[in-house]
Amino acid sequence: MAVGVLALQGSFNEHMAALRRLGVTGVEVRKPSQLESIEALIIPGGESTTMAKLAHYHNLFPALRDFVSLGKPVWGTCAGLIFLANKATGQKLGGQELIGGLDCTVHRNFFGSQIQSFETELVVPKLAEQEGGSDTCRGVFIRAPAILKAGPDVEVLADYAVPLDKLRSVVSDAEAEEAIADSQGKVIVAVRQGNILGTAFHPELTSDIRWHSYFLKMRKASDETSLECLDLSNQNSCYHLGRRTFDLPIFE
After folding, report:
1. Any known ligand binding at 177?
2. For binding L-glutamine, which residues are annotated in this chain's numbering (predicted)?
3. Which of 42, 109, 212, 225 is the most buried (most CB within 10 A)?
């Protein structure tokens, strides 16, 4: 299967490397016509405003929206998550264009500036249930967004505890205040809704390829064409027989 990685800016090379480790062909996508030859798409992390300007320059937004509407698997990490959200708050003056499709309200740069980036362990039972391995994963948050509110059809895969005063210092509008009341001191950092996967962190910057494996197995239930199931017995897998390989510059 051919998987596209939007290659306008950001960590697309790291996603391409993770796909190679799983024996999957990655295609760098920069033009609308290239979306026609792929079966799934990853929108990487990066600088969301810059990526939006480049996507607009290359007239990619209409084609990206069509791709999502076709029910093909799409995964947005960090900035990619912002793109896929139906609503984004905390944007720069003038805002930015979104692809949409994910019934969420995302706060851009919720966790602060570059120097406030961090790593932490996230509890991910649903990922472990499908992909095996530990029930936690390493979350690398770099100028990261957070999901403040998710619709009823959105499955939460991971959340992260934050003090309520932190929530109140970042968000202010009425909808966000409602999200605070429902949050129980947590923000959402990984979700799935049908054919869309979103993570506020960067799995491609770790040795754990389970998120990529999970994404490759996603199918649209109503589509007769299913994606080929990934063979996790492949020795390139970093979890083959419990052994882990380190062939990338990664953060541990």
Report:
1. no
2. 46-48, 108, 142-143
3. 42
